[in-house]
Amino acid sequence: MHERLGVAPYLLGPHVEPPDERDPERELWDEVFAEMRGLLAELGRRVNDEAPALASLVRAVVSMRALGYRSGRDDIRRYAEALRPIAEEECTALGEHPGLEEAIEATVAYTILYEPVLLALRRPAHEDVSARLHGVGPDRTRDTSISSP
Question: What does the alpha-carbon distance between residue 99 and residue 4 come to, in Å, rounded to a whole number?
Answer without folding.
Answer: 12
